[in-house]
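[agent] plan:
  1. take the single chain provided in the ticket
  2. run structure prediction with default settings
  3. attach structure tokens to the ticket
  4. add a short note for the reviewer (M.T.)
[agent] executing step 1
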Amino acid sequence: MMLNCPEVLIAYQAIARAGALIIPVMPLLKAPEVRYIAENSTAKVVFTSPVLLPLLSSALADVPTVQHIISTGNPEVQATRTQSTGDAGSRSYAIHAYSDIVIQGEAGAEHFLSSKDAVPVAEDDIAVILYTSGTTGRPKGVVLTHRSLISNALGGRGPERETRDEGHTLAVLPLAHAYGILAANVFFLRGQTIVAHPRFDTSAVLSAIERHHIISFAGVPAMFVALLFTPDTDKYDTSSLQTCVSGSAPLPKAVLEGFEQKFGCRILEGYGLSEASAALTGHSLEMERRPGSVGKPLPNVEVLVVDENDQPVPVGEIGEVIARGPNVMTGYYNMPDETEAALKNGWLHTGDMGRFDEDGYLYIVERKKDLIIRGGFNIYPRDVEEVLSRHPAVSEVAVVGIPSERMGEEVKAFVVTRAPVDAETLLAYCREWLANYKTPSEIEFISVLPRNAVGKIDKKELRRQHVH
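[agent] step 2 finished; step 3 output follows
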């Protein structure tokens, strides 16, 4: 549980080589969430940053399996902060300075690597247990093997002869998230130098692009929206930027086109989920441009769009996206029933609705659970979001279904603006581009959309706050 820094990447490699399991934990989680993950995974050692020590002191005080906390930063400061906020008498772990552990490790590294007693690590051994955000219930531990991670990174890298580039890339995605881990692994395979950023901030990111001559970074739509609408970006030299990757949520076409025009680079959109080591499909620079598409399946990954009986639907028709391949998880940690449901008939059932075009490009339409059924008509929120996002006064939008006695559900849009506009103007705009049954019955203006730890719009929280 660390902020983005070089030590995260070093720790990941060391833990994997030692044959231990990596349990990434998002630094934005609260104490009860951290405690649940520590208890469920029976973690023994925690790597962290000094700023997170007070939270960990509270979260882990009564977790019996945790034996050691290893923190970056100044050891004296660490001890002071921990003692002032935690109950030292009840904790069962010792706190160590990361630098001291490195010094100890250096002394025995050569012997360990050459010793016959070194822990053997096989491709099908568990490498990572990634805990989901819990938007559909309690967090589930996604079990990924070394084969899963490596195959996904190789697929994301592309042919080595075409992708070797020793430039600098920016790590702004949380390195505790599946997408952030995949991006870092791909950058390593491409021979790039990773500049780790502790958190996303537009000014800091633009400054880093200029200072380090950043050629690429992977992000989520919220990051591209923020950068697109940041004023005075011409104060920064961002001419080194060549390629960006967008994932985790659909990227509105208007944002993609506006960002590329503003920064003079390409955005390659992909699709995946933690249960697939982060990626199932993607674009490459060599592929034909299909705005709105998330590309084609990665090498060695099979993707189908199926009906409710798991039978493939015709090209162009919408169904559930299912997949199989070496990158797919082996299951959920200690959850056999959930594993069986997710990996039904040997295929990962994503819960996402999508369609293929005639050339094999995949388009993600919506999450199954976010589908709105109004008077018997299926409405995919992204269709409405795409239209509203094109309006010049709109910065961001999220569309959800709200209960209706007459129609079953109605369409409601939550809008963040960047210029003055009223609801009737936006509704009239929708009526120009959408069928009447898709046009929102209500528009609510809000200052900010709730997001999960990786920056994805949290529609469950949006409903909890605003739909009654």
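[agent] step 4 note for reviewer: Residues 77-89 have pLDDT under 50 and may be disordered.
[agent] ticket updated
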